[in-house]
Amino acid sequence: MPISVQNMFKERKFPFLFAFSFLLISVTILLFSYSSSSPSLLLSTNFQVSDPLPPPPRPLPTRSPNNVPVSSTKPVSKTTAAASVVDLNVSLDIKWKNCQLGPLAVDYIPCLDNWKAIKELKSRRRMEHRERHCPKPSPRCLAPLPIGYKVPVHWPKSRDMIWYSNVPHPKLVEYKKEQNWVRKSGDYFVFPGGGTQFKNGVQSYIDFIHKTLPAIKWGKNIRVILDVGCGVASFGGYLLDKDVITTSFAPKDEHEAQIQFALERGIPAILSVIGTQKLTFPDNAYDLIHCARCRVHWDGDGGKPLLELNRVLKPGGYFIWSATPVYRDDERDTMVALTTSLCWKIVAKTVDSTGVGLVIYQKPSSYSCYKQRKEKLPPLCEQKTNQNVSWYEPLSYCISRLPVDRMGNLLRWSTPWPQRLSSKPPSLPSEPDAEDIFIEDTKHWAALVSEVYLDGLAISLGRIRNVMDMNAGYGGFAAALIDQPLWVMNVVPIDAQDTLSIIFERGLIGVYHDWCESFNTYPRTYDLLHASFLFKNLKERCDVIDVAVEMDRILRPGGYLLVQDTMENIMKLNPVLRSLHWSTTLYQGQFLVGEKGFWRPSENDKQKET
């Protein structure tokens, strides 16, 4: 017979009714609690925690004692991540102000615009005023936006045209109007692909180089290039079509905003100068170095500028010099003497139909010529014992030594591209498990980028062109993105293990840097900053607020910061980003995604403070 509630009362089954009622109430409370603590709960107007992502197929990366990424077997706890989010609803009350530098504030680069230090220099003869002079303490002001700033033109259209209002510097239009560097057309700057030496256009010039020396195979044996005094970087921009990545560099000088033009176009570039200090690259890094009327006195200071090029050029690499002195006998004598003393040999020399002279030198790949020199000047450099020697290191009057493997044998030319991206780098440490760690690191980043970064995080790849990995390790993050229409500047911090040679051997580019100081780039030049366990060593030397200010300076409005770190470090960084009016989202308790907006301090903000 069916049991009804009425019958149960008649039969006085009160204990059962009490138990049933208690169970029903408990289930209701649990359901309400779960709904109230859903992971998609919005914590504030600009910080939210996403739905949990499925765990990546491989362990998440941690850092070895030397700060090189290796795999971790410690899984991410969803319970830990959920419990941590409550503490993230915190914001610092910082009264931000725009940099008070008049019209120069929009392009402020703290370590290159320290006019007080520059005025106190005893000499400018060797470009000392174009080098780094970082203010202490680091300024905590924000670079304002140019009037009328817009979301940048997307790649590949940006190679040929950018918004005038984003880089409103018209001087180059007039100064270089006969050379087709750049033109103004309505609301845009247009780049026709011309240059001082590109009289028939940069594409014709690139073809001219290959015709002059067919041994130069773009995108095969020639993958990483350094372009000295690059102008608006059209040479490097057009070589991208040939699977060649170029570090274009020039100083911040009277050629107004040339590097800013390059980065706004989506072309790899950095502010630098060959003055009194070494370039921030490792030895034997580049397959080819190019100079087209780059206005460097190679024989100056006893030939130290050319010795510096020799240092960063790999054995067997090429130096292309395209300039008037190449074919004028009265100006080439000192260059001939200097290149002879370096054992560089001329492998090609010609003049094209427009009168552009071209000479191509090749660096030796053995010591035989050095030993046969009658005068041992410049001498060979001493053996290295320290790392990161090209950070605030003075130029040397010596010939850098050729690279050797762990057995002391001279290294040969790199594996051709694209095989070199995944093949064993010659500069790997000598430890028995070094190769296994490298292979695992490559696999790990490929999986993490594919299944978490690209598929799971709220990042719009269509808006991303210029990317910086602030703690690059072996370059696994950049390698995993190689098929995307973007490029990555790999940064090896000076307090991390020196892996920059490995990055170049893989066919990628990068620099050394100290993140307690500002980076050599203009404001608003990168679309994505990636920081994997960057703060582990950094927090012991400088304040997270100063690092956040620099991130805000570098990143474009609408750009992203992707941080993978401990919850402790994320909880220190997030309140600073929120005070800058960034939106932030947390994934899996360790991936913080920040998106920079268009907010800048205004007069209204100051009135609110009073």
UniProtKB/TrEMBL annotation:
SUPFAM superfamilies: S-adenosyl-L-methionine-dependent methyltransferases (SSF53335). Keywords: Glycoprotein, Methyltransferase, Signal-anchor, Transferase, Transmembrane. The keyword Glycoprotein applies. GO terms for cellular component: endosome; membrane; trans-Golgi network. Residues 53-74 are annotated as: Disordered. Pfam families: Methyltransf_29. Its EC number is 2.1.1.-. The keyword Cytoplasm does not apply. It is found in: Endomembrane system; Membrane. CDD domains: AdoMet_MTases. Residues 53-62 have a biased composition (Pro residues). One of its GO terms (biological process) is methylation. It is a single-pass membrane protein; Single-pass type II membrane protein. InterPro entries: Put_SAM_MeTrfase, SAM-dependent_MTases_sf. GO terms for molecular function: methyltransferase activity. Belongs to the methyltransferase superfamily. This is Methyltransferase. The lineage of its organism: Eukaryota, Viridiplantae, Streptophyta, Embryophyta, Tracheophyta.
